[in-house]
Write the structure tokens for this entry.
Amino acid sequence: MGDKADYYLKYESKTIEKEHLHPAGADFVDRMFAQTNRSNPVLRSLQTLYNHGHLAGTGYLSILPVDQGVEHSAGVSFAPNPNYFDPENLVKLAIEGGCNAVASTFGGLLRVQESMLINSVYR
């Protein structure tokens, strides 16, 4: 941080009041989502997301975003790394990186799920 370390470490926002912040923590899902109209399965899924990966139990999420041609060609992003055209490799990357989740196309993630089921049957 260099010369600005003191500024960054002691900074106080003048535009957002402290009472309006929702700090992360192990009880984040309970504090932020439990009082909403979300169903118990949705709350359970949220809690599962928040309890996996390197940030498990901290109230923070790390989601690997993957664009497989939804907005533009995946070739632009993955041409130098052809292995990452394979959705299963992207999920493996997220797991190795300690991510809580992967955001991708439904078809790509469904393909990974099918592949995992087939591999578990034939092992």
